[in-house]
Design brief:
Blueprint lengths: L2 H9 L7 E5 L3 E7 L4 E6 L6 E6 L9 H4 L8 E2 L2 H7 L3 H12 L4 H4 L3 E3 L6 E3 L4 E7 L15 E6 L15 E5 L3 E7 L4 E6 L6 E7 H5 L8 H7 L12 E3 L5 E8 L5 E5 L3 H6 L8 H9 L11 E5 L2 E4 L5 E4 L8 E6 L3 E7 L15 E6 L8 E4 L8 E2 L6 H4 L6 E4 L2 E4 L7 H10 L2 E4 L4 E6 L3 H8 L12 E7 L5 E11 L2 E6 L3 H13 L4 E4 L5 E6 L3 H5 L3 E2 L15 E6 L6 E5 L8 E6 L4 H12 L5 E2 L2 H10 L36 H6 L7 E7 L10 E4 L2 E12 L4 E8 L9 E6 L5 E8 L9 H4 L1
Parallel strand pairs: 15-23, 27-38
Antiparallel strand pairs: 1-9, 2-8, 3-7, 3-9, 4-6, 4-8, 5-6, 10-22, 11-21, 12-20, 12-22, 13-17, 13-21, 14-15, 15-20, 16-17, 18-19, 23-24, 25-26, 27-33, 28-31, 28-32, 29-30, 30-31, 33-37, 34-35, 35-36, 36-37, 39-42, 39-44, 40-41, 40-43, 41-42, 43-44
Helix pairs in contact: 3-4, 11-16
Protein name: Aminomethyltransferase family protein
InterPro entries: DUF1989 (IPR018959), GcvT/YgfZ/DmdA (IPR028896), GcvT/YgfZ_C (IPR029043), GcvT_C (IPR013977), GCVT_N (IPR006222), TrmE/GcvT-like (IPR027266)
Pfam families: DUF1989 (PF09347), GCV_T (PF01571), GCV_T_C (PF08669)
């Protein structure tokens, strides 16, 4: 059972459901406590302590609060983490200082905070009203250290009425849309609209008109057909478009933040016909509520309003049929929009109580309008586990440099990464990597510090590789499987010491999985996520070694970059013994000679600048994810949810070399299922040469005559082979190089594209370049 599940179970024994909060590492949380409330604080990895400060209505510390609320017996000592963090004068110190100043808390008040160790985090009943500041603080972690400040979860059981999330800034205005009603309102160009689901699972339909056009007697509303066409979608889709337009195809609104990720666009707001067809005559509905609300602007009533259906959880079947279930939204979830022009808007709190659209219980919607002078970052919500609060997309430490070179960003694993760069393009970026040197921001890789006397035992059991054979300073590539042999993730393991490892992968769930295995086995080991403390770029290409050896200093006992072996790493500094601490590994995802450079995010821009200026004589270029995809497919390297998933074992994913069944005699998760599989029956990952210029795509079926025998997992045009190429998982009988097959399109039978099977990798089959 996870920590969140345990607290959720505890909630069943309390008088009310908790409000959940996440306190990120080096962050803080402010809560108003009422008599009768209770608070439970837990550590995500069971190794993070906290500091608590209680203050009264005048902002003064309440020194006696610990004794009055029976917390003295678990309190460790006076707090030191927050003060140590503020003393650094780093980015984390500035962020914390700004937050505390906004709450009116100075350094003198912080000296009255108290520390609680991870093994004694507080769970207490509130007997006196106060404001609680939860501090999850500590110094920045340098790249060679393994002591990150990790997140806390706070469950607040409160007697207070439903509360809203803290405003994103100071609102210009805010108002409630009561359940089963609609409200119209005016927004100026550049202003921000935050639409909040107050209690969760409540849909809110939204429509908007050009305010200037209305004054001139014209109705110019949001237009579903224009919006979908410009976004390349033919049917209503779950999720939101980034921009919404009018019939002239001019932007009216932009979506800036979304904590839910599940909505619909331009289905009708509920109307009388829907209810009458269901047998509910005279049922109140959003359309009639809109008609009444908009009448003051002389907008003609309609029988049905095409609307953005916020929080409406729809799905579209393969044949286009629309279905829906309960919303994903929880109390406090929201969407943040920005108006591109003066608008007349209307929002509803949908009255539908005859189906799951509002979780069978219509509730309120809350609206906040922020002035145009505000600035909010673009972000979307995601969750690692179903029960946790939504997490929001972040910029990487290198974003200040990459955003100066491109506006083409995509969300990947909770971070914004460049898809391609202006004045370069994917083909030029690809060529720079193959011929010279290129640099790519790979910060979204997850980093976990695995420490303790049983660290090797845990990793030997959790990973498919033989961890016991690893030397200090070595890196191995491995898979992580569950009991069926299906892959949870792949990644690289760094051995930093006898009992100290760093696991670098793609999915944050790996940390939860490793901690779960450690608990099941009763192992003495810590698994702590350090992603927020270690950001990284890959420097790849034939000139990468020449570039880095000019700027990386190493101690006398450390291997220099010029001599660093393949899948080895070293620690050093930038430009000398007093420079920025960095870790350099000879790893990459391109099939070229290359390295990865790891540093603290506060120093990321300085590291980027130094790499860039040193690389200019070599013709350095930035590298986006579109070009990276070309490179990794040519190199035959696999990607999550393409070449592998939890139903694909490492052999079927093309990385059977990571499963040494003969030489690794120790048990590992998935071993029994993998060993029980007949090797001759396993599907194979092969390459396909596409004997046509017509594009093929991930998911296309590969046919032998009438029958499908494989599926394309990834495809691209290969400048190296001057062909379109693909990776394909195929039945073993058809995996021999030279086998002629066809890709089927238009239902697989109406169109065929000839292909031929080839071995992997397509580029540098002996891998001489990456080993050079």
């Amino acid at each position: 059972m996870t920590i969140q599940q345990q607290c959720a179970q505890d909630a069943l024994n309390k008088s009310s459901s908790p409000r959940w909060y996440r306190v990120e590492g080096q962050g803080a949380l402010r809560l108003d406590l009422h008599v009768g409330d209770s608070v439970c604080i837990t550590s995500a990895d069971s190794n993070q302590g906290c500091e608590l400060l209680f203050i009264d209505a005048q902002g003064q510390p309440l020194d006696s609060y610990l004794a009055q609320n029976d917390l003295v017996k678990v309190c460790a000592d006076k707090a030191e983490g927050a003060l140590a963090q503020l003393d650094q004068q780093s980015d984390s110190a500035l962020r914390l200082n700004e937050l505390l100043l906004a709450w009116g808390i100075g350094e003198q008040a912080l000296q009255q905070a108290f520390r609680f160790e991870a093994q004694a985090l507080p769970d207490f009943e509130v007997t006196q009203e106060a404001t609680l500041i939860v501090l999850c603080c500590g110094r920045d972690m340098q790249v060679a250290d393994q002591s990150p400040v990790t997140e806390l979860q706070v469950a607040h059981y409160t007697v207070a009425e439903s509360s809203l999330p803290q405003p994103l800034a100071s609102p210009r205005s805010e108002f409630r849309v009561p359940r089963c009603s609609a409200t119209s309102y005016e927004v100026k160009a550049g202003e921000w609209i935050q639409i909040i689901d107050v209690e969760g699972k409540q849909c809110s339909d939204f429509i908007a008109f050009d305010a200037v056009a209305l004054k001139e007697g014209r109705e110019e509303p949001l237009d579903g057909v224009a919006t979908r066409t410009l976004n390349g979608l033919t049917l209503p889709q779950p999720g939101l478009h980034s921009k919404f337009t009018d019939a002239r195809q001019q932007t009216m609104l932009e979506v800036v933040q979304d904590t839910v990720g599940r909505h619909d666009s331009f289905l009708f707001a509920c109307n009388s016909k829907y209810y009458e067809d269901s047998g509910y005559f005279g049922h109140i509905n959003c359309t009639e509520n809109f008609n009444r609300s908009l009448s003051r602007y002389d907008i003609a009533p309609r029988a049905g309003w095409p609307a953005i259906n916020f929080f409406f959880n729809t799905s579209a079947g393969d044949c286009g049929t629309i279905g829906f279930q309960e919303p994903w939204s929880r109390a406090g979830d929201y969407v943040l929009l920005r108006a591109s022009r003066d608008l007349i808007c209307a929002s509803s709190a949908c009255p539908d109580d005859i189906d799951p659209a509002n979780g069978w219980n219509p509730t309120d919607i809350h609206i906040r309008i922020y002035p145009a002078t505000c600035e909010f970052p673009r972000s979307v919500g995601y969750r690692i586990t179903p029960e946790e609060q939504s997490r929001m997309t972040k910029p990487t430490g290198f974003h200040g440099r990459t955003s100066a070179l491109t506006k083409h960003f995509t969300e990947y694993r909770g971070y914004w990464v460049a898809a391609e760069y202006q004045n370069y393009g994917a083909r030029a970026e690809y060529l720079a990597c193959r011929e010279r040197v290129a640099v790519i921001d790979l910060t979204p890789l997850r980093k976990f510090e695995v420490l303790g006397p049983d660290a090797e035992t845990l990793l030997q059991y959790a990973l498919t590789r033989n961890v016991c054979r690893m030397a200090i300073g070595e890196v191995v590539y491995s898979a992580v499987c569950h009991s069926t042999g299906g892959m949870i993730d792949d990644g690289t393991l760094f051995r930093l010491g006898q009992h100290a490892f760093r696991w670098i992968c793609g999915d944050s769930y790996c940390g939860i999985w490793l901690r779960q295995l450690a608990k099941e086995k009763g192992l003495q080991v810590q698994v702590r996520e350090s992603t927020d403390q270690i950001h990284n770029v890959a420097v790849q290409g034939p000139q990468s070694r020449n570039l880095l050896q000019q700027i990386i200093w190493n101690g006398e006992a450390c291997t220099p970059v010029s001599e660093l072996g393949w899948f080895r790493f070293m620690t050093g500094r930038l430009d000398g013994p007093d420079g920025i601490p960095v870790m350099i590994s000879r790893t990459g995802y391109t099939g070229e000679l290359g390295f990865e450079v790891w540093c603290h995010p506060a120093k990321a821009e300085q590291v980027w600048d130094r790499i860039w200026e040193t690389g200019e004589p070599y013709g350095i270029a930035p590298l986006g994810f579109d070009a990276l995809d070309m490179l990794r497919i040519e190199a035959g390297l696999i990607f999550a949810e393409h070449e592998f998933c939890t139903e694909t074992n490492p052999y079927e994913a093309g990385i059977g070399f990571t499963v040494p069944l003969k030489t690794k005699t120790d048990d590992f998760v998935g071993r029994e299922a993998i060993a029980a599989q007949n090797p001759a029956s396993r599907k194979k990952l092969v390459g396909l040469i596409i004997n046509s210029q017509e594009p093929v795509s991930h998911g296309d079926a590969v046919f032998n005559g009438r029958f499908p025998v494989g599926v394309i997992t990834s495809s691209t045009y290969s400048p190296a082979t001057k062909n379109q190429i693909a990776l394909c998982r195929i039945e073993p009988q058809f995996s021999e190089s030279g086998t002629a097959l066809e890709v089927g399109q238009l239902d697989g039978q109406r169109k065929r594209i000839p292909v031929s099977v080839t071995s992997l990798p397509f580029y540098d089959p002996e891998r001489t370049r990456v080993r050079s």
